[in-house]
Specification:
Elements lengths: L1 E2 L6 E2 L4 E4 L9 E4 L4 E2 L4 E6 L4 E6 L5 E6 L2
Antiparallel strand pairs: 1-6, 2-5, 3-7, 4-6, 7-8
């Protein structure tokens, strides 16, 4: 889960997810909310169907967060 702590509304569809340095098939990712916008103060949940590893989430404005998951 990631929280939009800024003051800008972001596009959920323009938020990129890299798994172990690669962009996975979109069918492997579930984003909530999925209505298209990630409002300030709102939490974005990303579910990845992949082996344990490292995920990097990059918002449309270039701000990124990297985390370890699974395992």
């Amino acid at each position: 889960e990631l929280k939009n702590t800024g003051s800008t509304t972001l596009s959920v569809n323009k938020t990129s997810v890299l798994i172990n340095g690669e962009i996975p098939d979109s069918t492997d990712i579930d984003r909530t909310p999925n209505e298209g916008f990630w409002l300030p103060g709102e939490t974005l949940t990303i579910t990845v169907n992949a082996d344990p590893g490292r995920a990097k989430i990059v918002a449309e404005n270039g701000i990124a967060e990297t985390t370890e998951y699974g395992g």
